[in-house]
Amino acid sequence: MKALRFENNELRLADVPLPRRDGEALVRMTVAGICDTDTEIARGYANFRGTLGHEFVGVVEESPDRSQIGRRVVGEINVGCGECDLCRENDPRHCPGRTVLGIRGRDGAFAEYLSLPPRNLLIVPDNISDRQAVFTEPLAAARAVLDQVEITASHRVAVIGDGKLGQLISRVIARSGCDLTLIGKHRNKLELASRAGVKTLELDALEIGPSARFDFVVEASGSSGGFGLALDLVRPRGAIILKSTFHGAAGLDTSKIVVNEIRVIGSRCGRFENALRLLESGCVDVEPLIAREYELAGGVEAMAEAERPGTLKVLLTN
Ligand SMILES: [Zn+2]
Ligand SMILES: [Zn+2]
């Protein structure tokens, strides 16, 4: 089969054997999404070698769980060892021995087929299209913020970053009815969020002072300056939720965290069930975030497009 692989510091389309792992399901990829993690890996981040891709929707061709065969699925990307305390508590996301689809020790979804354990797969409800379902993983990551802090209608919340993740996080948080502001640099992307009912502010127009104090600040800019800005914006005893896995030291004044008693919360993957429920209800519109679609054979070109600053979601189809 064809697979988009990162090996020897090079991204290329390769012919490889079908991915087969004992006790796992074989899934034919239908649509896959390129995320910033993929472009970072292709720059050498995470030391991953193999087939890229972790956002996908597909159809089960083979599975030890016969009820899955022929069904449309999305898949949780973390595969735990199944034996440690975290795995026993049903949290393979933090298993120290985990593999992660297309990120750590496991070939990913930018291929004709991928392999995952049956327990990782979730059936996609019929009213969710493939182009919506492919957003399940990033939407779950966005939704994870609400599992970590309780945001209510009385809170003031800022999201820093108008890119793919910031857009999804704003759409999810806006549903709490809180006073939400999305802060970004790109007028076209801020407009996109406005059309989804989110209040926006251009970074240049931001005035930092006592009036710009938020209960929660979600950092999703992917830039090293985002954390510092979040510290300027959060109120004393407020919380910062970090979603960016920016590469390199943030170089910031940590005394502000101590003096103002700020909570800093790291946030990564979320639960797929919650994201599927959001998509099923139709209350989060993800399709406006699609920039362009490529066939899998055009994967190298698609990655180059996704890497261009300001590009929204680039999809691969099979
Ligand atoms: Zn991703
Ligand atoms: Zn484990």
Give a quick precis of the structure.
This protein has 10 helices and 18 strands. With 318 residues, the protein is an alpha/beta fold.
Describe this protein's structure.
This protein has 318 residues and is of the alpha/beta class. 25% of the residues lie in helices and 29% in strands. The protein has helices at 36-41, 85-88, 130-133, 136-148, 164-174, 187-195, 226-233, 255-259, 272-281, 299-307, and strands at 2-7, 10-15, 25-34, 50-51, 55-62, 72-75, 78-79, 99-100, 113-116, 121-123, 156-160, 179-184, 199-202, 214-219, 234-242, 263-266, 290-295, 313-317. The model has no long low-confidence stretch (mean pLDDT 94).
Please specify the SSE layout and strand pairing.
Blueprint lengths: L1 E6 L2 E6 L9 E10 L1 H6 L8 E2 L3 E8 L9 E4 L2 E2 L5 H4 L10 E2 L12 E4 L4 E3 L6 H4 L2 H13 L7 E5 L3 H11 L4 E6 L2 H9 L3 E4 L11 E6 L6 H8 E9 L12 H5 L3 E4 L5 H10 L8 E6 L3 H9 L5 E5 L1
Parallel strand pairs: 11-12, 11-14, 12-13, 14-15, 15-16, 17-18
Antiparallel strand pairs: 1-2, 1-4, 3-5, 3-9, 3-18, 5-6, 6-10, 7-8
Helix pairs in contact: 4-5, 4-9
This protein binds zinc ion (2 copies).
